[in-house]
Amino acid sequence: MQPRKNASDELRNQSLDAYYPQMKAQFPEIVDRHVQAGETIFSKGDDATHYYVVEDGCVEIHDGGVIFNLLESGQGFGEMAIFDQKSHHVTAIARTDATITCISTSTLNKMTASITELSGLLFEQMRRNLNLNLFASTLTQVIGEVQQDIFESLTNAFIWQTYQPGETIFAQGDVGEEMFLLLTGRVRVSSEMDSSVHVLGELGRGTMFGELALLNNMPRSATITAIRETTVVCITRPIFDQLIVQFPQFARRMLAIIATRHQQNFSDRTLQQTTPMTFALIQGQDAVDMAGITGSLAPYLAQHGQAIILDEERFKAQHGASMRFTDIPPIVKQRWISDLEDTHDYIIFVINDSCSEWARWVAANADRVVIVDEARNTPQPTAIKQCIVTEALYQRYELLLLHEPDVVQPSGTAAWLEVYDVTRHHHVRRGDNAHFARLARLLTGNGIGIVLGGGGARGYAHIGVFKALLEANVPLDAIGCVSMGAVVGSAYLSGLHTDDVIAKIVEDGRKYGSKKALLDTTVPISAMMRSKRVTEAINNICGEMHIEDGWIPFFCISTNLTKQCVNIHQQGKLHRAVRASLSIPGIFSPVVRDGDLLVDGGVMNNFPVNVMRKFLEGGTVIGTVIAASGPQRTYEIDDEIDGFRAVLSRLIPGMKRKRVPSILKTIMAASSVNAFARQTEHLEQVDLLLQTNTAPYSTMDFDNIWELSERGYEVNHETVQHWAQSNSDLLR
């Protein structure tokens, strides 16, 4: 890949000298100011009332202890005054005795209107100054204090590049000839594995990427794509080699930072959202009270970091701009976003008109686009799709549906998901603080998810875990589960609207979860059970509820025998997804969904923590698993078993009876042995592991729901209480 430069060198090197006579003749209010060497012209934070041009001498521009620009005759500075900026973002000091021309903001506006050639030159000098300032502040943020000679060498050697949303910076497999420092914007890191693309994470301002291929001469291991307008500086191999020779201490610092980052980078456990985060909240239809929604959300966002909510007018007022939004150059708006990101963790841009220039610009420069609408409305996506989607094809979209305070259970969500292609959706009830707190946690990457593993009847212990978490006031923002865990998880989801969800789960278990209610033997063609009873039991627990209508996100997994992969069920009827997840091979009959043959999800993954991590984009994952580390039964068998003799030994007194494994227990154990073997690696990915030893109960003891649920509570409630007290900051 050949790096590309942004602006023409010819325009960049022009100065304002040629315009002095015309400027001073036409605008007599322009004044000259004589300054001595070392004198401060303005300081960072001073009111930006004038634009300055060096007439003779030399001026230094400082930020963060770094001199990042030296200006001589004909070069301008103080460019933020062009846009009525409230204050300067740098400090200007005379290096030598100098004469500078001072142009007030009002005069400058008249000048650029009457001298058309001047406008382009001013904006190009401003663009270069802003880029240098961004580079200086970002480099200092990443590396620390940088000596002046090193900074000047880097400025002259590095190549500036800007990418639009969706552009690929480099692709997996490319030859690595350069590394990058991200100045503004955001990029997505993905890799192709097993013929599918996996998103590994996102990188924001102040991060380096591409360095491994540069250092080890290997092909790129991942693809980097801009997901909003992104500016980087490119460090080519010759430049990097020169740095090592010319500035070895600086190079060692860079290498140390790279090494530290790669000790914790891109594993499922450490994948977190990169702050600061920029969100665009788009009004779906006119009836939506955006001010009320953002007002309810703001205090909960603030619990996770510095947050600010801005519409177009507040955005311009924040930076003292009075001109039309369309007249503000893109580089200035990018600078303003960077300034906001320097002081805030979360920036929320509000869009009331999806077809405005403000809406298009915000959508293209946001990290997440959230469409906000009333759940009672009929989906009307046409305007948003026409005005926004084309401007943000590579953005991540989410949907927020607002419900009235008296709504007990959402419904009809499928109609929204049919017309909006969103990654996640959220149900929020007005006036319910817990709902807005959950929304804030999920948006900011601080969500709390619980993952329930399988284990047959022993999975009833998960009920006690839920009880312990509720008593400790641990909020649960998402549920992920498999096999028997899917039965308990779905019972919790479908019972959230009740006064006592735990009592409902236990009652449902007693009614529909006994051996008699679940097991109906038949001629073993596809399975030992006809599976009509287990299907009816799950239907009774879940009713006609759809997964997407749950107050909190839910998924369960099954094993797709047709495609030899894991199916993740996040939409559709809840009972059909749970039935697929519980199709224990050989015990319950497999099911067909969309033409594919599905069996128990525990066959491939009995603890889907990795799926939850990806959904939460970091956050906190609580895992509940079943253990049975008691005395193991011994068997007295040879390499063959005479079934008739085994049965007769149980019927005829005095006949020697041998212990042989039952076919049910053998199938149950064999169907998930591989998944249990892989479970160890998943256990390492949870933040809180709740492990319940259910011995002496077995996978077929469905009649012991009360004992197993109480075991889950007794074993884990103290651990949960202690964890909740020690991690109260996560539960906000």
Task: Tell me what the structure shows.
It is a single chain. A hairpin with a 4-residue loop joins strand 25 (554-560) and strand 26 (565-569). The longest helix has 28 residues, at 116-143. With 732 residues, this protein is α/β, with parallel strands linked by helices. It contains 25 helices and 30 strands. Helix 20 (532-542) crosses helix 21.
What labels describe this entry?
alpha/beta; 6-stranded parallel sheet; 8-stranded mixed sheet; disordered N terminus; 30 strands; 37% helix; elongated; 732 residues; single chain
Summary, kept brief:
This protein is α/β, with parallel strands linked by helices.
Low-confidence blocks of residues? 1-13, 266-271
Mean pLDDT over the residues: 84
The total of beta strands comes to 30
Global geometry: elongated
Sheet with most strands: 8 strands, mixed
Layout: helices, strands, pairs:
Layout: H1 9-12, H2 20-26, E1 31-35, E2 40-42, E3 50-56, E4 59-63, E5 66-71, E6 76-77, E7 91-94, E8 98-104, H3 105-114, H4 116-143, H5 148-157, E9 159-163, E10 168-170, E11 178-184, E12 187-193, E13 196-203, E14 208-209, H6 211-216, E15 223-226, E16 230-236, H7 237-246, H8 248-263, E17 277-283, H9 290-301, E18 307-310, H10 312-318, H11 330-343, E19 346-351, H12 357-365, E20 368-374, H13 382-387, E21 396-403, H14 413-419, E22 424-429, H15 433-443, E23 448-452, H16 461-471, E24 478-482, H17 484-494, H18 501-512, H19 515-518, H20 532-542, E25 554-560, E26 565-569, H21 574-581, E27 591-593, E28 596-600, H22 609-616, E29 620-627, H23 643-651, H24 663-683, E30 688-693, H25 705-726
Parallel strand pairs: 17-19, 17-20, 18-19, 20-21, 21-22, 23-24, 23-29, 24-25, 29-30
Antiparallel strand pairs: 1-8, 2-7, 3-6, 3-8, 4-5, 4-7, 9-16, 10-15, 11-14, 11-16, 12-13, 12-15, 25-26, 25-28, 27-28
